[in-house]
Amino acid sequence: MRVLICEDNVLLREGIGRLLEDAGHEIVASLPDAAGLADAVTEQAPDVAVLDVRLPPTFTDEGIRAAIALRGQHPDLRVLVLSQYVEERYASELIADRRGGLGYLLKDRVTDVEEFLESIETVAGGGTVLDPEVVAQLLHRRSRDSRLERLTPREGQVLALMAEGKSNQAIAKALFVTEGSVEKHISQLFQKLDLGPGEDGNRRVLAVLAHLSHARPDSNGAR
Fold this sequence. Notes:
The chain is built from ten helices and six strands. It is an alpha/beta fold. It has two domains: 2-131, Response regulator (Rossmann fold, 3-Layer(aba) Sandwich); 142-213, Winged helix-like DNA-binding domain superfamily/Winged helix DNA-binding domain (Arc Repressor Mutant, subunit A). α7 packs across α10 and α8 (168-175) crosses α9. The chain is globular, with a radius of gyration of 18 Å.
């Protein structure tokens, strides 16, 4: 896997690079700011770009805005955003482009190296990985979707865990049920969200987007 890193903190930038190299991946570019980011992506064609939300010169939202721009210019580019907080406006826009290959993790909540490496590999494979706190904060600021009112509390829990990027196996473990039960719940929620078989390749992403875009504050699956 070819990885580009854009992070202003030199220790974190070098640390991420070392972790990825030790895991067998290639660092094709390591940048302290977004100034040469677009050119580096064009020239190096990374599989995944790991970007900090806050980058020089203003340390506000340069990184996540760059992520949105790069996704528009390079549709196949996978992006993992790292941040110390949830930048709600641009996070919603980034997620709403209805494609996979996306991650948004909060730095302070990344406590396991193996899970972090798995997250990058999931994103590289076209999956979506979202920190639960990102999901929760986006949920609290969205109106309801009548389709989501069709879901049972258990289906809401399954959908919330899907929104965190968990696999069926991980969902089953979290809810203490079998994978078969999880598969049945997912099939049922797809039907209730009007996501037909013809959209099979994108149904999981579309279901998660519906969940992120429309809060259900009274549901057990809201977090």
